[in-house]
Every structure is written in C-alpha cells, then in structure tokens.
Amino acid sequence: MTKPKVLLLGEIAIAKDTWNSLSDIAELIEPKASNRAEFIEECKSGELDGVVAGYRTFGSFAVTGMFDQELLEVLPKSMKFLAHNGAGYDQIDVHACAERDPPLLVSNVPTAVDDSTADTAVFLIIGALRNFNTSMLALREGKWRGNPPPPLGHDPQGKVLGILGMGGIGRNLKAKMDVFGMTTIYHNRKPLSEEMSGGAKYVSFDELLETSDVISLNLPLNKNTRHIISTKELQKMKKGVVIVNTARGAVLDEDALVKALDSGHVLSVGLDVYEEEPKVHPGLVRNPNVLLVPHMGTWSVETQDKMEKFCIGNVRSAIEKGKLNSPVPEHASLQ
Ligand SMILES: NC(=O)C1=CN([C@@H]2O[C@H](COP(=O)(O)OP(=O)(O)OC[C@H]3O[C@@H](n4cnc5c(N)ncnc54)[C@H](O)[C@@H]3O)[C@@H](O)[C@H]2O)C=CC1
Ligand SMILES: O=CC(=O)O
C-alpha cells in the first residue's frame, strides 16, 4: 500500500532518529525549492501531490514565506495538517487555513518552550536593569568600564514586574522572578485562577503600563496585538521603565521605542525579537542601553530536542489518528 507523504519544511537539528522513525508510517519528502517562487511552482507541478502532513520550522519562512492564501491555493489538496515547530505561529494565517476547503489544520509547540524562553527573559531583565551592556561593550574595546563609567544599575529586589500575556512563558517567568524578589502583576485577556497566576495580581492594561518598573512582553503576535505597545502606551509608563521583549518584535513599535529610549523615558531595554528579523532597527543597535540577543529564546540543545519531538508527535498523530495533539486554539474545534 502507498504510504501517505510527509513534507519537511526546514531542518530537524537534533531529533533525527525520531523523525526517521516516521518512515514506518509515511514517505518522508523534502521540497527542492529554495525560495517562495520556486516552492509555488513545485506545488503547482504536482510533485508534492499526496502530501498529507507538513512539518515546518520558523526558519523555513526563508523558503516558503508566509503560509497565506496564495500558498493555500497551490498546496496539494491532500495536505490536511501542518505541524509548526514553535509556540508562536504568526507566520501562518490560521484563519485562511481554517477556511480552506479542506481546512489545513495547524498545531504549534506550547509548554516545551517555557523554560528556555523564560530563562532568556530573566537574562534580559537582569541585564537591562543593571545595564550591563554598556560596560560589556567598553570592556571589549579595552576601556574597562568605560570613561566615564556607566551610571549605577538597579536591583530587581522590591521592583514591580508587569507581565503582558500570562501564558506558559509568562507564568514560568513569574515563578523565576519571585526568587529575585520582584512583585509580579499581569494583564491577560482574562484573569487567571489564583493557582494559575501563582499569586500575581491581575490588573488592567493601563495599570500595568502605569505601575510596572519592568514590563515583559509575553503575548502572541496577531492583528490585535501588533504594536500593542506604541507611543501612547510608552508615554503611560513610568519614567525609567525597563522593557523586555521575548514575544515577537512587532508587538512593540520599534520606531516609538527608539524615540522613548532617546528621550530617556525608557531607561533600558532587553530584546530577543525584532520587527523585521534578521534586520535590527539602527536606533536600537547604536544605543548602548539596549541589550540585544538574536532570537535565541529556545536556542538550547535540550529545548530544541523537546520541541522537535513534540512537533514530530503532532505529525505522527495526524497520520495515525487523523488528529493533531496540540492544535492551535483557533483550530481546536475543527478536528
Ligand atoms: N523568543 C523566543 O524564542 C520565543 C518566543 N515565543 C513567543 O512568545 C509568545 C507567547 O508564548 P506562550 O507563553 O507559549 O503562549 P501562550 O499562548 O501560552 O500565552 C500567551 C498569553 O498571552 C495572552 N494574550 C493574548 N492576547 C493578549 C492580549 N491582547 N493582551 C494580553 N494578553 C494576551 C493569552 O491569553 C495567553 O495567556 C508566542 O506567541 C511566541 O510569539 C515563544 C517561544 C519562544
Ligand atoms: O520563537 C519561537 C517560538 O517558539 O515561537
């Protein structure tokens, strides 16, 4: 009997054995295309016909671009499942996927990302509060702490951490920052139970902006959250606020942020994500009060291994049971 095809978009970095074990139930194929135009042609040529499920990585964007209406129109009709290896699925138009006939059901990888992304946020919070970047740059230029040395930094103890988006990563971060003596408040679309929030206080969006010493962005990027932090929101923040973003660059308006940094209203920033990755706003690069990390949130052996196995689990379930283990919330009722 012919096996269903599974399309790999991107690379399996670690869990190669788990991936190869899928060949018991599927024919594993990869596209020849190296850019979007070629990928669209390959789809149209019929070479990918018979593909039932796809596994995609964040980096495969370089080949396919957005999973949008244009792509949905050329993908083989046999393709019913797309397992995304990542928590954030903003590269996929999940609404268009739901409306396609037949729907393309999408899963993501929540939970496996929580520790390492929250760890990255911890690093950025402490680094930005203490403003370590300035002296780290001076040291590499042979100037020790710099001349003059940087202003004194700030300790986290006793400060208020405001988490915008209290999901898996936000809750994990809250627990970690308890150890640093921070008090956490949060804003979400809905308040969480006391147990889920770990005792963090639910506040309105404005109260979070107005009362936090440090603001951590941990919400998904979608049409409702694009530039959720822009000029008006930055003005509501305390003078000297520290902002950390490990969510997606575009939840924060980078032009507005650069202006708020230049005026001194925002003291320092720690960023893992950017509006137009891999480009970084020149106003951020030139500012020593900005601690920059190139989207390294889940860049660890252990987490990549967990994420890949989780995502492969979605592919296996799609083929064996016709269902994804962790459909994105928008698709949960479709299967
Ligand atoms: N830097 C990195 O490498 C990584 C970045 N991420 C990003 O972090 C985001 C969050 O990840 P998780 O915590 O796993 O997601 P999650 O789905 O567990 O949590 C997101 C939370 O944000 C809340 N939310 C949604 N819209 C909101 C709004 N308008 N205002 C306030 N809260 C809102 C949701 O209710 C939910 O509680 C992902 O969507 C992804 O973009 C995730 C993993 C790694
Ligand atoms: O950015 C990484 C993700 O898992 O989302």
UniProtKB/TrEMBL annotation:
Key words of the record: Oxidoreductase
EC number: 1.1.1.26
UniProt superkingdom: Eukaryota
Enzyme class, first EC level, given as a word: oxidoreductase
Protein name per UniProt: Glyoxylate reductase
Organism (species): Zalaria obscura
Gene name for this UniProt entry: GOR1
